[in-house]
Amino acid sequence: MSKTKIGILGLGTVGSGVFKTLKNFSDIEVVKISVKNINKPRNIDGLDKSLLTANSEEIINNSEIDVIVELMGGVNPAYELIKKALENGKHIVTANKELLAKHGEELFKIAEEHNRVILYEAAIAGGIPLIMPIKTILAGNKINKIHAILNGTTNYILTKMDNDGVSYEEVLKEAQELGYAETDPTGDVEGFDAAYKITTLATIAFNKRVKIENVYREGITKIRKEDMAKANELGYKIKLIATATINDKNEADVRVHPMLISKNANLAHINYVTNAIEITGNPVGTVVLSGAGAGEFPTASSVVGDILAINSELNKNDYILPMMRCRHEENAIPVNINDTFNKYYISITAPNAIGIIAKIGTICANKNISLSSILQKEVFKNKTADITVITEKCQEKLIKEVVNELNDCTVNSLIRVAE
């Protein structure tokens, strides 16, 4: 029986899980694995070190290899390696969300020119089946909305802040000690990781090209434990939400930022490192997919699934997996965040003076912004008051004008509220 020959770029956490899982399939052979350090100890029983190489080009240029599995992460050198691999006639399986968000359009074009496929089930939500269902089972739907928790690190931090009543800084330190957060957590806590993922997910779901430079991004570093407590009191949870909507004019509003989510909503109950994606379309309605968004074996599950999809078609069809190929010929029209309409939670420290609440209400009224609630709970020793405002739906640029006009107050937090 002929075997499909595999080359793996990267043998970190996910690469190790993929290698271990592929041992269960007799018709697949891992020919070579590129690593940074051949002599590094690895948690893989019976690993034949002759499979390892420090030279990725040795894999890319190996004529025996049918499929390149890229698990290096980042843009460089992954971009050049995948580009060359496609030109050399290799199919690609990748978990690289940043690469797809920044260079997916070009790489998919090269893949089509060389009649090769790029599969990337693991790039958006780890072990959660997502891309294949959208491309196949949900293909008959017009998807117009996505609400998702796509980053386990930030969800862990926000869950711990909420449950334990502690600060962002305290939880981040703990998350780093437990290995849930990197030494440099910027990619996660500032929303880059989720932005890369929602860029590709929106592109696939809407069948329109979404550009990463048009995706609004805001992280969780300014969320306070006080905001968590107030949100709970008001009937909400705070989550980092990746959201995308598209209208009949092809205008796509794609963004990542913290949101107050009603405790009755599905995503409010997604805690710690779990990920979840809520997809709304016609005729299906709303579908929620949830599970492990990262980790050695959950992510390996998606990677190996892609490998097997390619394996099942090799040497049987001249044009394999047509439904999984890129067909995005039209760009979505980006919506600027300032033109969006949202409800807002505003936490204000104001002078404890007669008329201050009336002043806040007047500033909002002058912008035609209605208030859903305004609450003063505490007066501090320095004669300032803690005031919480929830607005009705209004334009982003107007709420920013309101914040600027609250010049004798301190705006501690401005967080959008999900409908």
Q: How would you characterize this protein structure?
A:
- Strands 7, 8, 9, 10, 11, 12, 13, 14, 15, 16, 17 and 18 form a 12-stranded mixed sheet that branches. Strands 3-2-1-4-5-6 form a 6-stranded parallel sheet, with helices on both faces.
- It is elongated, with a radius of gyration of 24 Å.
- The chain has helices at 13-22, 56-60, 78-87, 97-113, 122-125, 131-135, 152-164, 168-178, 186-189, 192-206, 225-234, 296-313, 356-366, 396-405, and strands spanning 4-9, 28-34, 52-53, 67-70, 91-94, 118-119, 142-149, 216-217, 236-246, 251-262, 274-282, 285-292, 333-334, 341-351, 371-379, 384-391, 394-395, 410-417.
- Helix content is 34%, strand content 27%.
- It folds into 3 domains: 4-127 and 296-324, Rossmann fold (3-Layer(aba) Sandwich), CATH 3.40.50; 131-292, Dihydrodipicolinate Reductase, domain 2; 340-417, Alpha-Beta Plaits (2-Layer Sandwich).
- The longest helix is centred in the last third of the chain and has 18 residues, at 296-313.
- Helix 3 links the parallel strand 4 (67-70) and strand 5.
- The chain has 419 residues and is an alpha/beta fold.
- It contains 14 helices and 18 strands.
Could you outline the blueprint of secondary structure elements for this entry?
Elements: E1 4-9, H1 13-22, E2 28-34, E3 52-53, H2 56-60, E4 67-70, H3 78-87, E5 91-94, H4 97-113, E6 118-119, H5 122-125, H6 131-135, E7 142-149, H7 152-164, H8 168-178, H9 186-189, H10 192-206, E8 216-217, H11 225-234, E9 236-246, E10 251-262, E11 274-282, E12 285-292, H12 296-313, E13 333-334, E14 341-351, H13 356-366, E15 371-379, E16 384-391, E17 394-395, H14 396-405, E18 410-417
Parallel strand pairs: 1-2, 1-4, 2-3, 4-5, 5-6, 8-10, 10-13, 10-18
Antiparallel strand pairs: 7-9, 7-11, 9-10, 11-12, 14-16, 14-17, 14-18, 15-16
Helix pairs in contact: 1-12, 3-4, 4-10, 7-8
